[in-house]
Amino acid sequence: MLCMALACAFTAAIPMERVAVTPDGKGFVLADSRAPFRPWGVNYGHGGKLIEDFWDADWATVAEDFAKLKALGANVARVHLQVGRFMDAADQPHAHALWQLGRLLDLAEQTGVRLDLTGLACYRPADTPAWYDALDEPARWAAQATFWRAVAGRCAASPAVFCYDLINEPISPAEKRARWSSGQLFGGYDFVQFIARDPAGRTRGAIATAWIDRLTAAIRNKDARTLITVGMLPWTTGWGHLSGFVPAEIAPHVDSLSVHLYPKSKDPAEAPRGLQECAVGKPVVIEETFPLSCTGEELAAFLRASRDTACGWLWHFDGRTPGDYDAEERARKLTMNDAIWRAALRLFVVLGPEFMVK
Fold first, then answer.
1. CB-based contacts of 195: which residues, under 8 Å, 6+ apart?
2. Looking at the domain assignment, is residue 174 inside a domain?
3. What is this structure's pTM?
């Protein structure tokens, strides 16, 4: 609780400014002071849960976690908003979820940890409403626009939102699909969605940009200023831009590019190549990264080299700090997975000052 009090006291005297894109399109600044801003943060969860799994019953954990993030040096937390929690029907947003989102905005302003709000999540198949999966493309896009219009309406007055990420890892299909989801689970979650199920003679790029434009119009109906992006799968060896979201094609339709890159020890050239594909004239945020398939040293080397292109970096956080893991070790409860998380977060803390300051 002390770290939360200190974090709030530190930021309370400094009014939060909105984040804007620099005139040259290569980075971010605070809108009023024009001071440089470089996102350095995490994808937020706690104990393997999404925020909406516990923010009703245990708001204190959310508040404590944001204080921990501030103490670790983070200035952005990526939060994933689920369709099933924010929509009661295709045309009916869930009022209580929007109210809770307002509490999160207040917390973000108090702690100085801005929000990357990633929407339209359908990560758990069991949590995805049957009515939502039953919609055809026009109706699904309309429901998605309703979702974003409601979220943007709640957030428009707050400077705490760094960006709206329209959806996590969308795919524009090359051929007809039987379902909206990928059907591939990772740790019990399906992180990938198709934005259409039938190309119907359209190119993948045309579908992607039309979808972005539809949802952007919904957001801009309520919020004219907050930045908009899409959390893209990267270029990959042998598959290229398998998502159909090609950076050069979608860049004119978004404020910044967000790409998910996990360097591989066995293919060290892949992540740098994927990042280079995003060097198309808009600010680039590596919205997901972590030493999943590489060593900490290899990740640090990749991130340092990435600064020629990227101007923001988001890791992962699941509720525990290096100090929490140290306590587990003293209690002889530290697992191998815990040790990996601790090493990664220690590296996050060490690198923070280097990446947040030129």
1. 167, 170, 171, 172, 207, 208, 211
2. yes
3. 0.95
